[in-house]
């Protein structure tokens, strides 16, 4: 995007702002300056008024001009430009002037005729190329006074700035858009743009243009009708268009380009004379042929695709006397994918509309009509035709604390509001903690609080933000669901490592089987209304029946070793859901191989509970308190984890095993919630050597180990780190007693234990077991 300082000053007061300050401001607000060039007129280049122009006596292509430059007598200057005959005021480099390229002006004799100066073209003055011939001055640059230096005319001494815009900043593809950003950065208001009222026609446009729409049109359109006798192009417009690399020889094309570059509105002109039908009217039909593609047709002939392209056949030119002017806006987020899908070939204006043109289309039409009426003989219709959409502005809720956290520094709320208002945002509410922001339509790229923070940050200036070490702030993502997922995953991996295979069964079961084996069933009022099959007529209340059925199928396939597990949901009488883990091992304990000579041992209770330990970690077993038809009355236990009941483990009842056709089979069913480990505080590890000591004791045959365990835990001996049974022995010679051997691990955190200290601890342990459990040293 190319802008000039003088053009910007039509929209914002830049008094007191140097070019360097302007350069730094642009860079700080994200409009990176790619280049900046100051154009200054050389000295002794003045306004000249041609008094007469005659052919050179000895050269057909040269003209002999008498030029008033404010001196006592006019200058005689020989000029070869063809358009000098049409000129009145010109730029004259007088003798002594040094033009760009170190071209010094001196008295000369051309074909025998003396010449005292040079009438200059734009390129000879160091300005951009503006066609062939000399530059012709007019009142658009100010009052023309012969002899007045051109460097005294501000528009000839301008700064041209080329800005590098990011793809989302289509709102700055205009002088007004850039000025809007400067307004926020410099805290200066935009200057109102008074426009002269053009001469109007006696008839409204509706008497000339017959407009029809088909369906919903998702675009903004404005049409005006102009009768044009002549259209002149003032030097100021030519000069500015040349500065921004948009100069054209066509006055109409130049006026359209000038208004578009100034306001950002997409403007097109059609030749209304070529569009009139047999009744002298101009028919227009608008239809959205695909989401984002709006076609404009006249009597079936395609005029344009809004924001994309226009028909060259009906585009107006300088010879057109009747103009149909069109200003348009279409949402780029709808337009771009539609154009890509339809493979429509766009023209030059698509670059603007695809990045987001100015949605306030009246600005562009008013500017165009004002310039055309001021510099030409044009009459416009009284009231334009308008197509509008039901646009709903996007509003964001902004949390002030979060906004400052994103920026990295607290910005006063008043400053935040001022910046946003300058940028065209609307503020709702005055709460210090939260406020609402309505996004202007031209900022379609603003989506979230991070985008708002970026707007604040670039206007405040990144250099004005205090440097801080990089820090990441992240909310706790370890939710209860994530925690359960991780534990479920870990249990699966441990079960597979222990030799089990995961089974996935239906959440349904046979109600009769559940009742037959003593499991609860869902109340009749909450039962399934439409079971998928008769065998699955209720929700399961246990996983064990499903796994037994799976094991039965494996037996029919010839499997002799069947280790299965499942983690899944079960349901109580009220259909409340909870999660359980069930494990089953039936038949051989291992695969047949050389080591077992093809005769693997059968699974037994001891091996099964060891496999449970490899999955669950440390756990305890007590007398079984579960009651159902699957449990063996003599080989079953309640499992305790972290001191809480977690489930049960049992050998499958022989009658049930026979019913399912299974051999030796063991089961365990656990509540998943009980498997979730509690928070465990880390304990210090001693640097000193520990020692193991064994005690063999005689106790009553019916005495459970759990009672001995409770007695030892009540001792609260700090040197006793852990203990566990290692042997149990019964014999006729022992009568009603049994031998229990316990192993104790003793360790100190402060030093190596002496024999005296060890003996003292063991004595206290023995005394406790003797008094609490009736134990005797064997």
TrEMBL record:
<dbReference type="GO" id="GO:0000287">
    <property type="term" value="F:magnesium ion binding"/>
</dbReference>
<keyword id="KW-0547">Nucleotide-binding</keyword>
<feature type="domain" description="TRNA-binding">
    <location>
        <begin position="39"/>
        <end position="151"/>
    </location>
</feature>
<feature type="binding site">
    <location>
        <position position="455"/>
    </location>
    <ligand>
        <name>Mg(2+)</name>
    </ligand>
</feature>
<dbReference type="GO" id="GO:0004826">
    <property type="term" value="F:phenylalanine-tRNA ligase activity"/>
</dbReference>
<keyword id="KW-0067">ATP-binding</keyword>
<feature type="binding site">
    <location>
        <position position="454"/>
    </location>
    <ligand>
        <name>Mg(2+)</name>
    </ligand>
</feature>
<protein>
    <recommendedName>
        <fullName>Phenylalanine--tRNA ligase beta subunit</fullName>
        <ecNumber>6.1.1.20</ecNumber>
    </recommendedName>
</protein>
<feature type="domain" description="FDX-ACB">
    <location>
        <begin position="686"/>
        <end position="778"/>
    </location>
</feature>
<feature type="binding site">
    <location>
        <position position="451"/>
    </location>
    <ligand>
        <name>Mg(2+)</name>
    </ligand>
</feature>
<dbReference type="GO" id="GO:0005524">
    <property type="term" value="F:ATP binding"/>
</dbReference>
<comment type="subunit">
    <text>Tetramer of two alpha and two beta subunits.</text>
</comment>
<keyword id="KW-0694">RNA-binding</keyword>
<keyword id="KW-0820">tRNA-binding</keyword>
<keyword id="KW-0963">Cytoplasm</keyword>
<dbReference type="Pfam" id="PF17759">
    <property type="entry name" value="tRNA_synthFbeta"/>
</dbReference>
<dbReference type="InterPro" id="IPR045060">
    <property type="entry name" value="Phe-tRNA-ligase_IIc_bsu"/>
</dbReference>
<dbReference type="InterPro" id="IPR002547">
    <property type="entry name" value="tRNA-bd_dom"/>
</dbReference>
<dbReference type="Pfam" id="PF03484">
    <property type="entry name" value="B5"/>
</dbReference>
<dbReference type="InterPro" id="IPR009061">
    <property type="entry name" value="DNA-bd_dom_put_sf"/>
</dbReference>
<keyword id="KW-0436">Ligase</keyword>
<dbReference type="InterPro" id="IPR036690">
    <property type="entry name" value="Fdx_antiC-bd_sf"/>
</dbReference>
<dbReference type="InterPro" id="IPR005121">
    <property type="entry name" value="Fdx_antiC-bd"/>
</dbReference>
<dbReference type="InterPro" id="IPR045864">
    <property type="entry name" value="aa-tRNA-synth_II/BPL/LPL"/>
</dbReference>
<dbReference type="GO" id="GO:0000049">
    <property type="term" value="F:tRNA binding"/>
</dbReference>
<dbReference type="InterPro" id="IPR041616">
    <property type="entry name" value="PheRS_beta_core"/>
</dbReference>
<dbReference type="InterPro" id="IPR005147">
    <property type="entry name" value="tRNA_synthase_B5-dom"/>
</dbReference>
<keyword id="KW-0030">Aminoacyl-tRNA synthetase</keyword>
<dbReference type="GO" id="GO:0006432">
    <property type="term" value="P:phenylalanyl-tRNA aminoacylation"/>
</dbReference>
<keyword id="KW-0460">Magnesium</keyword>
<feature type="domain" description="B5">
    <location>
        <begin position="391"/>
        <end position="467"/>
    </location>
</feature>
<dbReference type="InterPro" id="IPR033714">
    <property type="entry name" value="tRNA_bind_bactPheRS"/>
</dbReference>
<dbReference type="InterPro" id="IPR004532">
    <property type="entry name" value="Phe-tRNA-ligase_IIc_bsu_bact"/>
</dbReference>
<dbReference type="InterPro" id="IPR012340">
    <property type="entry name" value="NA-bd_OB-fold"/>
</dbReference>
<dbReference type="GO" id="GO:0009328">
    <property type="term" value="C:phenylalanine-tRNA ligase complex"/>
</dbReference>
<comment type="similarity">
    <text>Belongs to the phenylalanyl-tRNA synthetase beta subunit family. Type 1 subfamily.</text>
</comment>
<keyword id="KW-0479">Metal-binding</keyword>
<dbReference type="Pfam" id="PF01588">
    <property type="entry name" value="tRNA_bind"/>
</dbReference>
<feature type="binding site">
    <location>
        <position position="445"/>
    </location>
    <ligand>
        <name>Mg(2+)</name>
    </ligand>
</feature>
<dbReference type="Pfam" id="PF03147">
    <property type="entry name" value="FDX-ACB"/>
</dbReference>
<keyword id="KW-0648">Protein biosynthesis</keyword>
């Amino acid at each position: 995007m190319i802008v000039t300082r003088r053009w910007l000053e039509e929209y914002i007061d830049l008094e007191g702002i140097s070019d360097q300050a302007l350069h730094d401001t642009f860079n700080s607000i994200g409009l990176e300056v790619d280049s900046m060039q100051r154009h200054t007129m050389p000295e002794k280049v003045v306004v000249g008024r041609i008094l007469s122009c005659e052919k050179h006596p000895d050269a057909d292509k040269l003209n002999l001009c008498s030029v008033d430059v404010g001196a006592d007598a006019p200058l005689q200057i020989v000029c070869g430009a063809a358009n000098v005959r049409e000129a009145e005021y010109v730029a004259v480099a007088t003798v002594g002037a040094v033009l760009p390229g170190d071209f010094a002006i001196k008295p000369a004799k051309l074909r025998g005729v003396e010449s005292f100066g040079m009438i200059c073209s734009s390129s000879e003055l160091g300005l951009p190329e503006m066609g062939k011939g000399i530059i012709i001055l007019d009142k658009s640059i100010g009052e023309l006074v012969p002899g007045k230096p051109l460097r005294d005319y501000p528009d000839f001494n301008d700064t041209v700035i080329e800005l590098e815009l990011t793809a989302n900043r289509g709102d700055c593809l205009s002088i007004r858009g850039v000025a809007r950003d400067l307004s926020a950065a410099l805290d200066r208001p935009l200057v109102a743009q008074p426009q002269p009222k053009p001469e109007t026609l006696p008839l409204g446009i509706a008497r000339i243009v017959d407009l029809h729409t088909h369906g919903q049109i998702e675009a903004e359109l404005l049409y005006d009708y102009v009768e044009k006798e002549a259209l002149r192009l003032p030097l100021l417009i030519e000069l500015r268009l040349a500065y921004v690399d948009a100069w054209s020889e066509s006055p109409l094309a130049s006026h359209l380009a000038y208004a578009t570059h100034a306001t950002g509105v997409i403007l097109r002109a059609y030749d209304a004379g070529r569009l009139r039908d047999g009744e002298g009217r101009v028919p227009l039909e608008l239809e959205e042929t695909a989401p984002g593609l709006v076609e404009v047709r006249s009597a079936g002939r395609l005029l344009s695709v809004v924001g994309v392209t226009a028909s060259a056949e009906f585009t107006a030119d300088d010879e057109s006397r009747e103009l149909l002017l069109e200003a348009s806006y279409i949402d780029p987020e709808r337009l771009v994918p539609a154009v890509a899908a339809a493979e429509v070939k766009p023209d030059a204006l698509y670059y603007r509309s695809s990045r987001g043109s100015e949605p306030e289309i009246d600005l562009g039409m008013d500017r165009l009509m004002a310039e055309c009426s001021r510099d030409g003989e044009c009459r416009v219709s009284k009231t334009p035709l308008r197509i509008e959409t039901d646009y709903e502005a996007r509003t964001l809720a902004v949390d002030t604390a979060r906004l400052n956290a994103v920026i990295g520094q607290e910005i006063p709320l008043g400053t935040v509001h001022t910046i946003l208002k300058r940028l065209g945002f609307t503020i709702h509410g005055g709460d210090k903690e939260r406020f609402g922001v309505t996004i202007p339509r031209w900022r379609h790229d603003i989506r979230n609080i991070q985008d708002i923070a970026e707007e604040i940050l670039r206007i405040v200036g990144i250099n004005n933000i205090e440097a801080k070490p990089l820090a990441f702030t992240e909310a706790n993502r370890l939710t209860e669901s994530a925690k359960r997922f991780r534990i479920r995953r870990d249990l699966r991996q441990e079960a597979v490592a222990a030799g089990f295979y995961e089974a996935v069964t239906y959440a349904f079961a046979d109600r009769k089987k559940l009742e037959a084996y003593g499991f609860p069933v869902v109340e009749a009022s909450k039962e399934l209304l439409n079971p998928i099959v008769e065998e699955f007529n209720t929700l399961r209340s246990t996983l064990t029946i499903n796994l037994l059925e799976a094991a039965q199928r494996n037996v029919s396939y010839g499997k002799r070793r069947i280790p299965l597990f499942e983690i899944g949901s079960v349901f109580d009488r009220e259909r409340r859901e909870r999660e359980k883990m069930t494990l089953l091992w039936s038949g051989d304990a291992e695969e047949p191989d050389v080591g077992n000579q093809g005769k693997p041992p059968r699974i037994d209770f001891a091996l099964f509970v060891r496999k449970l330990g490899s999955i669950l970690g440390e756990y305890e077993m007590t007398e079984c308190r579960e009651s159902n038809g699957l449990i063996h009355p003599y080989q079953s236990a309640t499992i305790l984890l972290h001191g809480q009941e977690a489930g049960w483990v049992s050998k499958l009842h022989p009658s049930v095993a026979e019913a399912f056709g299974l051999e030796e089979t063991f089961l365990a069913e656990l509540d998943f919630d009980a498997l979730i480990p509690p928070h465990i505080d880390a304990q210090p590890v001693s640097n000193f050597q520990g020692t193991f000591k064994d005690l063999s004791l005689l106790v009553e045959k019916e005495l459970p180990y759990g009672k001995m365990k409770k007695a030892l835990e009540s001792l609260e001996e700090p040197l006793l780190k852990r203990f566990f049974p290692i042997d149990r022995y019964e014999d006729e010679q022992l009568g009603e007693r049994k031998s229990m051997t316990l192993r104790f691990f003793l360790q100190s955190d402060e030093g190596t234990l002496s024999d005296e200290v060890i003996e003292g601890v063991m004595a206290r342990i023995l005394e406790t077991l003797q008094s609490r459990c009736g134990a005797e040293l064997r």
